[in-house]
Amino acid sequence: MSEEAADQPETLGGSREEKAKALLEAANRASERVAGLHLAFMAVCVYVLAIVFSTTDLDLLIGKGVRLPVVNVDVPLVGFYACASYIVVLVHFNLLLQLSPLLASMACLLKILNVIGKLQAFVEAAKPPFTNLPGTIPDLLAAITALKDCIPALAIPQIVFMLKGMLQLIINFLDCFISQLDSIVKFQASIDLTQAEGNPVLRESLLCARDNAQASMDNLMLSLQPVQPILNTVTIVAGIAQLPLSLPDLSGVGGGADPAQAVTSLRDAIASLKNVINSLPG
User: What are phi and psi of 111, to 5 degrees?
Assistant: First the structure.
């Protein structure tokens, strides 16, 4: 077994740890936002209760205005009690709206914890005299069944089809790129300044054509730069689907690269990408 293959499990493990850390950080950020809204809701409730408890029977009888604490503003008694309940309900409703996505994002985590708890109960029951073992099996199976939605195995073929489509699109682009590059190289080779000796007008036209061809070459090389980030994205998506891919590195092709060397490198990259497509399942 090669060293690269031996290091692959460690790399995948590190990738899983990074994904788990990212999910935990996202959950923590959502929790902090919900915690802030919860404190705001509790503050509104305390504020309203403080005003309610400070209102006497005489205030209700004569319709005396209410002085709001902190802001020291007098408001009509009837208007306050008419609006306070709506304010509390709206703040509570906003809290529930923010709480629902948080609970939904933690659904799979709660299901995993449920499976772990049922598995622990099963292991503890799998000891003599095994009297509680039959009752733990249905609970464990039910917990595992509830977890299947968190492992979208059916989505993996769709990811494979998407990866194949992206790689085929890159191959088509590189084929077109090589065709245009060959065309420009042949056009540059056809420009012979020696034929314009003694003819300044023709020489000026040939120099202009050469400069335009070089500008087209530079712009064509710049169009190759976005391909490498796309290949990096394909690698990341394939890693999520547990499909480690070995894609060519095109970061060195372009810029001031020699056109002939660029064509050779790109043809090798196309052959490598075709092999990757053939190796994908489906």
Answer: -65, -40
